[in-house]
Amino acid sequence: QVQLVESGGGLVQAGGSLRLSCAAPESIFRINGMGWYRQAPGKRRELVAGITRGGGTNYADSVKGRFFISKDNAANTVYLQMNTLKPEDTAVYYCSTVPPIAWGQGTQVTVSS
Fold first, then answer.
1. How far separated are the first and last CA of the chain, in Å rounded?
2. Which of 40, 38, 17, 44 is nearest to 96 (CA)?
């Protein structure tokens, strides 16, 4: 069973920043691209940022220029730096492979206006 552990969520005012972390098993971290997904109430889960094995990144248009994905290969950890947060960024954030093979418990991000 794949274990993914997300952390770093919280309540922040609009315009603020948060940094999410995700610890992944080495077995999947090394051979897959990784991504951060989010699911807002009543909406489908969506991929917001991805990073390839080689370090290439891509972002959903809604977060481009505000969110930045990175990884630490030695620590098998993926990060999501979220800046200039907006109320519409409120969601549960998950990390997984791209495409996803398993889900962790997620971490709640709430942005107040």
1. 39
2. 38
